[in-house]
Each structure stands twice: as C-alpha cells, then as structure tokens.
Specification:
Helix content is 71%, strand content 2%. The chain is mostly helical. The chain has a domain of 175 residues: Serine Threonine Protein Phosphatase 5, Tetratricopeptide repeat, CATH 1.25.40. A two-stranded antiparallel ribbon has the order 1-2. The radius of gyration is 36 Å and the shape is elongated.
Length: 707
C-alpha cells in the first residue's frame, strides 16, 4: 500500500469517531486533497476514488439533521456537486442548497457565486440570478473577475445582453473569459452586428487581452459577411490558431454560410487534423450551396479516407438532403440501405430526411411504407409525407392523412398548414380551406407571413376573390409574395384593371417588384385583353427596374398578343427574341392559332413543339382540333395515326367538386360515382332547359376525341 493510500485509510478511520458535521467537512477536504495527491500512481485513479468518496459524503450531508456547523467550504462543495450534474433537477437543488446556506447564516464567498450563477444561466432563472447579483453587491464581490464573468454569462444566457454589457464594463481587470462571455451573449441573442463590432474592439483595444480559440469559434458563428470573415481568418493566422481543429471547423462553416465554398474547401484541405465535425461542416456546406454531387462524393470519401472517423447523425442529416434535392431514386435507395447498415434507421431525424428523399423522387408509396415503420414520429414526419402527396397531386390523400393526424392528437405546425392549403387549392375545396383557416387562427399561425400568403392564394384560386382581398387588407405584415398573390388572383379572375391598380400601390410602397411580380401583371393583362398595358409593363421591367425578361415573360407576351388576335405581331415578337423560343412560347402561339383557326401558322408552331416535346400528347390533340375546326379531316386522321403509332395517350382531364365538406372527382364520361345515374339525369335535364332557353353552344372550340 502506498503512503498516500495509507494516509487516506487512516483519516477515514479517524472520521468515524467525530461529530457528523465535522466528519462532513473533513471528508470533503480529504476528497479534494487526495485528488491532488501526486503520490497516487494514477491520475484517473485519484479522480475515481475522490469522486466516489465525494458522492458518499454528499449523501452524509443530505441525511444530517443540522447544517449550522458546516463552513462555507462544505456548502460550496455541495453546491458545486449539484451545479455540475448536467441534470436540471439537481441543478435546481443547487439553488435550494444555496438558499439553505443563506438561512443558516453562512456567507457566500467568491467560490460560491460562480456556481449558483452558472445554474441560473443554465435554467434561465433570471429573477433568481438578479437576487444573487444583489447578494454579490452586498458581499462586495462585484469587481471580482470570476464572479463578474459569471454574472456576464448569466445575463447573456438569459437574453439580457444590455445588462451583461453593464456588468462587463464594471469589471476592473478583464480577462479573455470576460470578453468571450460577452461575445457568446451577443451570438446567442442573435445580434451578429454587435458581435462583430465587439470582437473588433477586443482585437484592437482589448486591454492586452488577445482572442483565443473560444473567441474565434464564437465570433465566426455570427459572421455571414465574406469580407469580415476573411479579416477574422487573417486574425486567426496572426494568432497562430489556423491549425486548431475547432477554429478550422468554424472557418469552414463561416465560408459555407457566406457562399464561398471554394475557400471552405481550401480550409478543410489544409487542416492538419480533422474530426467528425470537420467532415460534417464541409458536407453541409456543399449541400446548402447546391453542390449536391460534391456533397455525396465527400461523404463517400469520408467512409474511405476519414482516418477512422465514423458517420454520426449530423453527417446523415447533412448528406441525405443532398440526395433529396438530386431527386434520384437510385441514390436515395442506396442511402436508405446505408442508413440501415449503420443502425441509424430508428432515429426520427434520419427517418424524416429519408421520407423527404422519397417524396422528392415522387415515390410516395415508399415514403408511406417508411413512415409506417418508424417507431416514433413527430410533426415533421407527418408534414414531410403530406408534402409528398401534395407534390404528386394526390390532394384527397393529403386531406385524409391530415384527418388521421388530428385523430392521433398530433398538432400540425405552420409547414403542415401550408401544405394543406396547397391541397385545398388543388382541389378548389373552398369549404375545407375555410375550415383550415379557422384552425390556423386558433393555432396562432395566421401571423406567419408564408401561411397568410398561402391563404390569399387559396381563396383566389378557389373562386373567392372577395375573401382573398379582405384577408390581404387585414394583413399587418406583407411581403412581396403577398402582393404577387393578390395581383395573380385579380388576373385569374379577369380583373386586369384591379391587378394593375394593385401593382401601382406596390410601386408606391417600400417593396420592390421582382420578375414574378411582372409575370403576374402580364398574365393579368393577357386575361383582360389589355395589350397596350402589357407592352408598357414589359418594357418597364428592364428600363425602370433593371429586370431582364425571362422566357416566361416572352411566352406571356406571345399569349397576350395571340389572344388579342395580333398573330402577325406575335410572330415578329418571337423572331426578335434575344432568347431561343421554348415550348411555352410556341405553345402560346399554337393556342392562339386554335382560337383564330390559323392552320398555316398553327402547323409551324406545332412543328417546333414536336421537336421540343415529342412525347406531349396534348400538342397532337390541339393541332388535331385546329384541323377539325377548319374541316381538315385528313389532318385529324394524320394526328390520330401519329399518336397511335407512337403509343401516345392524352391524360384525361379531372374535375373536382366539393359538397358538404366532401371532395368528389370526375373524369370524362366517368360513371364510377355511386350517384352517377342521378348526376347524368340532372345534366340531361339541364341541357334540355338550356336549349329551351335559346342557348346555342359554340362547338368551334370543342376538343375532338383522340383515342
């Protein structure tokens, strides 16, 4: 037995003969002295024995009837034990012990306050922290650097950064911990500008204090400006910390957030050692900046060259979204297999990411199967699956899934509501949309601008322009999407003048229109036949706002001219386009040729379309109807033959009607509905009444059946 261990045993035996309160104090001192005893052969052994002994002593403290004879050291040890427990329950108990210490007349010292203030910071117990701050002042420790740093940290973590700054300014001799506590406070409160200004002050006039690893890691979190980021990078090099793995990781993350993926990769490649955070930061940087293939390549490289570093949940949460954005089912299935082999399939975050992959690949059945096998689901799981059904146009399934979600008492979030409103818009389900609106109000999501914009769009597309206008008027915070949605709503209802008036109101506001705004205005002019106004706004884009027209704007102008019967002008416009005309442009011209039965021009437009979209059956049907309207049955037969030989079939149209909160879908000549006999009888009765009233249908635009 070593000398240190012999002394330890001897003192333990002596303790058994003393008063419990005295035993407690001696045991506490003994545990810490033994921890520092250099004669013990193993540092790990000293820690293990001391910690075990201290836990036993804590139990002695808790079972002793009277605390009055304990000194400040004993109380401090107990408070420290609970403050460092990483358990909210035990941390709260540290504050209780502190209160008992005060009640027993034991004065807190400079070793007490840092631990109780740490607990207040962790628990966001601002009022208790203020009370302890008063105790600090009364005891005269407000200028102590350790207590002062703890106060700064407490106020900063409780989001009272102004008070934290006042305390910081009163610290007479600041150290790097003081400055770092303040920087972290600014970062946590989401004040990046103040963070950078404060760091600049520290670097240039920090009273001899130089930034350390923690300073750079914290300030880089707040930096989203590339020029400032490069300056901080230079400061890192001057401080000799460019080889530090934590600082390197922060630099990779900073450059990625600033969109400079080249510099991020340069820092990553130059790092002498990397950990899993290094790889995760670089993969996430590639994904966030749209370098999806590079993200997957680096992930594969991590498996083979990662120096024994294992994939974790953050790695998967960074790389799986890249698979989703690539919308490649093969890659998605490969990643799914990797997740299974790695044992991460049961994690809810990974499961949600994989659902998103399958829905982006339009493979919703696989997403549904994965969803059904997940041991735990959250609102993100439901929202991801609902979004998948919305994406492939299965709005009825979306509504059913939402109802199932409510039955299981899973509260939807704002993203869920956004997807549900899209489903109602697709189905033109006004009553369902109104019910969702009521739910949105009761859930407090109406204040979310993107939800409010979806409501405007839903009401307008479901035929209730009045409700869309009313809701838009009541919105307290509008963004550009709000204005665009309203302008588009007026346009689709043929109210071109109101759309233009709304655009003029937008011009008078502080919000600048974008290319989507002008697309909405031009579309409104098209539906209202406002040719002169359309030309005016088309030129206004470039001349007044510097927005270069895109292919969609040119297609809109061709549609405007074509619908108004200015076919020759539309052709000249196409010939003078600086862009290569796409399918949307020629499609607009072909649609105008159908309206005005211009076979020659229609054949020319169709020929270009067949080159661009040879698999689009609708084009053959459209040209066939142009032939039919002109009595060119040979042309109709030719189109039939081409479609038959190519195996093309036009997707049948589908109509939706909402009756008593239930959605009914109908295809052409559909008799699958249980009430189909009554429906067709009613339609026949209406046709008879319309004919009796003198109505003569215009059959010139009637589409011919193409089998």
């Amino acid at each position: 037995m070593s000398t240190g261990e012999a002394q330890w045993k001897h003192r333990q035996a002596c303790c058994s003969l003393m008063h419990p309160q005295r035993v407690f104090t001696i045991r506490m001192r003994l545990s810490f002295n033994f921890f520092l005893n250099k004669s013990h052969p193993s540092t790990d052994g000293r820690i293990s024995h001391a910690v075990t002994y201290m836990h036993d002593t804590c139990r002695l403290f808790n079972h002793t009837a009277s605390y009055k004879k304990y000194d400040a050291f004993s109380w401090n040890v107990m408070i420290r034990e609970h403050a460092n427990s990483n358990s909210e329950e035990k941390e709260a108990l540290a504050l209780t012990i502190y209160s008992q210490m005060q009640q027993n007349g034991i004065h807190a010292d400079k070793y007490t306050f840092p631990f109780v203030l740490k607990v207040c910071a962790n628990l966001s117990a601002l009022q208790k922290g203020k009370q302890i701050h008063n105790h600090v002042i009364r005891r005269g420790f407000q200028r102590d650097i350790y207590v002062g740093n703890s106060l700064v940290s407490m106020y900063a973590k409780c989001r009272k950064v102004e008070v934290a700054r006042q305390v910081f300014d009163r610290i007479s001799q600041k150290d790097v911990v003081s400055w770092n506590a303040m920087i972290i406070g600014y970062v946590q409160c989401g004040i990046p500008e103040e963070t950078l200004v404060f760091f600049h002050q520290m670097y240039l006039d920090g009273e001899g204090v130089l930034p350390d690893q923690g300073s750079f890691v914290s300030v880089l979190q707040a930096c989203t400006d590339l020029l400032r980021g490069k300056w901080i990078h230079k400061c890192v090099i001057c401080a000799g910390l460019e080889a530090d793995v934590f600082v390197g990781n922060s630099l990779v993350d900073m450059y990625s957030k600033c969109g400079n993926i080249k510099n991020a990769r340069h820092v990553f490649d130059k790092m002498p050692s990397r950990n899993v955070v290094s790889w995760n930061s670089m993969i996430a940087g590639y994904t966030q900046n749209g370098y999806l293939n590079e993200a997957l390549k680096l992930f594969c490289q991590m498996q083979t060259q990662g120096e024994g570093i294992k994939t974790d949940l953050v790695t998967l949460a960074s790389v799986i979204p890249a698979c989703a954005q690539l919308a490649s089912l093969q890659i998605g299935e490969w990643m799914h297999g990797y997740v299974i082999k790695s044992g991460f399939l049961s994690d809810i975050v990974v499961g949600n990411c994989l659902i998103d992959v399958y829905t982006k690949c339009r493979h919703v059945e696989s997403a549904r199967q994965l969803f059904g096998n997940m041991p735990k689901k959250n609102v993100i799981s439901w929202s991801a699956l609902i979004a998948g059904y919305v994406q492939i146009g299965k709005a009825s399934e979306t509504l059913a899934l939402f109802n199932q979600m409510q039955v299981l008492d899973m509260k939807p979030d704002a993203v869920t509501m956004l997807n549900m409103l899209s489903a109602c818009t697709h189905l033109s389900a006004l009553q369902q949309g109104k019910s969702l609106h009521a739910y949105i109000i009761s859930s407090g999501y109406e204040s979310e601008v993107f939800v409010a914009n979806a409501l405007i769009d839903m009401y307008a597309k479901c035929g209730s322009l009045e409700l869309a206008c009313l809701f838009f008027t009541k919105m307290s915070n509008r963004d550009l999407v709000s204005w665009n949605s309203m302008i588009a709503g007026y346009g689709m209802h043929g109210q071109g003048k109101n759309a233009v008036a709304h655009f003029c109101q937008l011009q008078q506001s502080s919000i600048k229109p974008n290319d989507v705004t002008f697309l909405c205005v031009l579309s409104a002019c098209t539906h209202a036949g406002m040719v002169n106004e359309g030309w005016e706004y088309f030129y206004c884009m470039k001349q007044q706002y510097g927005i270069t027209p895109k292919l969609e704007h040119y297609a809109c102008m061709v549609d405007l001219l074509g619908r108004a019967g200015h076919l020759d002008e539309a052709v000249r416009f196409i010939n003078n386009m600086p862009l290569e005309p796409g399918a949307s442009v020629w499609g607009a011209l072909l649609g105008a040729c159908r309206i005005y039965s211009n076979i020659t021009l229609g054949e020319c437009a169709a020929e270009r379309l067949f080159e661009l979209e040879p698999e689009n059956a609708g084009l053959y049907v459209l040209l066939s109807n142009i032939y039919a309207a002109a009595g060119r049955w040979d042309g109709v037969a030719k189109m039939r033959t081409i479609m038959k030989n190519s195996g093309l079939k036009k997707t049948p149209g589908c109509s939706f009607i909402e009756v008593k909160n239930k959605i009914h879908a109908f295809l052409v000549e559909d008799r699958s509905h249980p009430e189909s006999e009554k429906i067709y009888a009613t339609l026949q009765s209406l046709a008879v009444k319309m004919k009796a009233a003198g109505y003569v249908p215009n059959t010139s635009l009637l589409l011919q059946e193409m089998e």
